[in-house]
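hey so u asked for the seq, here:
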Amino acid sequence: MAGLLVLATSLSGLIPSVVQAKGADSPAPVGTIAAAQLPPQGRDMMTLIYQGGPFRHDKDGVVFGNRERLLPANRRGYYREYTVRTPNERSRGARRIVCGGLKPTAPDACYYTDDHYASFRRIVQ
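ran it, structure tokens below
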């Protein structure tokens, strides 16, 4: 048993750590995307968000739970999600804008995902 411990200890310095635990308060790094780089449908949705609608889908403007914990931690109800239309897609597709703030028409920050919440980029002007 002691031999295995010595072997494991000596190998631990040779094997790089590839998995890093992510705490609840430390979201994954979020890149950025300029608003001008959003697809046209994303730019249209940003305009609608600031106008307060009208939105095409019933789920637009509903609370986004941030269960993936990729966005900065905040209280429930802080984030809201909006569908970014995907041409030739019958369903809502994978593209979304998620905005956070106390007033939906004046968000503190908005994030874009084109892979259904697997990653986000903060939208910057």
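The first strand starts at residue 31 and ends at 34. Confidence is low (pLDDT under 50) at residues 1-24.
lmk if thats what u needed
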